[in-house]
Amino acid sequence: MADTGVAVIGAGVVGLAVAARLAPSTEVVILERRARHGQETSSRNSEVIHGGMYYPTGSLKARLCVDGNRRLYELCARHGVPHARVGKIITAMNADELPKLDELLRLGHANGVEMSRLTGEETRALEPHVPSVGALLSPNTGIVSAHALMDCLLHLAREAGALLQPRAEVVGLAREGAQWSLTVREGDEEGSLTAERVVNAAGLEADTIAGLAGIDLDAAGYRQHFWKGSYFSVRSSKAHIVSRLVYPVPGHVSLGVHAVVGLEGRLRFGPDAEYLPDRALDYKVNEGKRAAFAASVRRLVPEIEDDDLEPDMAGIRPKLQGPGQGVRDFVIAEEQSRGLPGLVSLIGIDSPGLTSALSIAEEVAQLLDAK
Ligand SMILES: Cc1cc2nc3c(=O)[nH]c(=O)nc-3n(C[C@H](O)[C@H](O)[C@H](O)COP(=O)(O)OP(=O)(O)OC[C@H]3O[C@@H](n4cnc5c(N)ncnc54)[C@H](O)[C@@H]3O)c2cc1C
After folding, report:
1. Burial of 327 (0-12, 13-18, 19+ CB in 10 A)
2. Residue 183 has pLDDT above 70, yes or no
């Protein structure tokens, strides 16, 4: 008999959401390499509850973001997780960008996202400091405290009997008979744990874990690329210069440097997209980026000067897309067809992974139930 029903690898927002979803009906152990839950990507992001207008219709990102948005607001309201439905505008800075806005509006509507088109004048009435020749308004885009959300999910998981094992790094994963054997490093010691099923929610290392299980990463298309995103914050009197999330018309790798209003009244701009070829966990914000950053920021809010910006924080996106490659969807796969029954891989969970976490958990539960 296995030590546990399900071993969840990784206590980020996705692993915690999966644990909270499964624990009422299954024994769950969460293995986390850090001293606490939520120390990596899940606490280093924009904390935006995305609407879901950017992703190809029918993709997992579109479906799970739209569904996850609704589930997340419900959970926050039910459990008192700090959040705010502040709304967002995506603004066109010149007439050339207007067709892209219309395209985005069509895509959003096809994905089931509530959105409307604003004229330049209507946009300036909402955000007087944002130059605009036209914009989209997404009323259901909002912000959430990612830490409070993860605390809440951990509490729900524990209440239902789940166990979180911090400082427990999974370094081996093998199918043995009808169960899984996980080799776990805790400090200088190595031990093992057996589980009937395994959910790989290891974020930046999800491809490494898949590799430990014997999956050929290149053949499967599971190799992740690290894209760092840095933020600068506005600490001057201009911290209240906008009252909504303000985005440009999106670029190819990221949604573009945008204005992120925080629950505590902090205003940040970011993230940019910097490729990390050596996959180093480098979270330092390079001060030397200030001038280039300020130039992008001024396209959105011209009154922001270089001196108004201070280096803030950075996060790293695990993307399936390398430089110059096309945009990829989330991978959520039960690996029976590779001879690995009971292993669920969650690969390339970049944005909108925070928004989608509760729906990803639902998807995982259905995959495991079907087996
Ligand atoms: C700059 C940036 C901005 C973003 N903005 C948004 C946004 O506004 N809205 C949105 O919806 N999404 C956003 N995202 C995406 C979102 O943050 C992620 O999709 C989400 O946090 C992924 O959660 P996760 O649980 O999969 O990963 P993580 O939070 O990385 O959790 C994985 C966990 O696994 C652990 N782990 C790794 N390897 C092992 C191992 N071998 N053994 C044990 N544990 C292990 C790690 O320590 C970590 O705690 C953004 C991401 C970035 C980087």
Report:
1. middle
2. yes
